[in-house]
Recover the amino acids of this structure.
């Protein structure tokens, strides 16, 4: 058991491999930070491994009782207040939410926080979504939201977390999930 608390955060768009990487992190002994959320459950996904689903009322109650970092679209929250020393990981689509988690972890005394921006070509991600059975309408909706949010900005993310966390961009197009994990481990 480690005597330090570390946090590795992966920021990536939909279908960029976050769930597959999460499975590798778990197999290597990392603990996943679970998000509480008010968003609807998606059938057939890995939602129950990544989220604790609450009604808005129960979320608001939990938020008052814990130290939540909250993202306001659908409500998402993570409580970092009572975590024992361990290696943790977290994945997010929203860069601002990931930065809020990173800054809260630093305030909670985490020894190390590393953020990785995982880039994967949109055509590859589209193919993955098709293979998962996503409708063309759903795929276009997801990509439209991404376009409206804009590209992840290394300078903006770095500025948001200051010198308290390292920020790295990984272009994962030709890497297997295991190779991506291996790169993250050595950086």
């Amino acid at each position: 058991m480690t005597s330090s608390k570390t946090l590795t955060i992966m920021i990536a768009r939909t279908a960029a491999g976050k769930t597959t990487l999460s499975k590798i992190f778990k197999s290597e002994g990392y603990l996943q930070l679970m998000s509480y959320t008010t968003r609807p459950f998606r059938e057939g996904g890995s939602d129950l491994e990544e989220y604790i689903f609450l009604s808005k009322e129960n979320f608001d109650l939990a938020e008052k009782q814990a130290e939540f970092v909250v993202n306001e679209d659908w409500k998402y929250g993570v409580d970092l207040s009572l975590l024992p020393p361990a290696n943790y990981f977290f994945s997010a689509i929203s860069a601002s939410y990931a930065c809020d988690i990173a800054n809260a972890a630093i305030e909670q005394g985490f020894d190390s926080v590393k953020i990785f921006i995982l880039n994967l070509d949109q055509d590859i991600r589209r193919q993955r979504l098709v293979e998962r059975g996503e409708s063309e309408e759903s795929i276009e909706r997801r990509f439209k939201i991404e376009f409206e949010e804009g590209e992840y900005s290394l300078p903006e993310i770095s500025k948001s977390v200051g010198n308290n966390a390292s920020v790295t961009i990984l272009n994962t197009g030709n890497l297997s999930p295991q190779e991506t994990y291996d790169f993250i481990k050595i950086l």
Remarks:
- Residues 136-149 form the longest helix (14 residues).
- The mean pLDDT is 86.
- Helices lie at 18-27, 47-50, 56-65, 95-107, 122-131, 136-149, 154-161, 177-186.
- The CA atoms of residues 31 and 88 lie 5 Å apart.
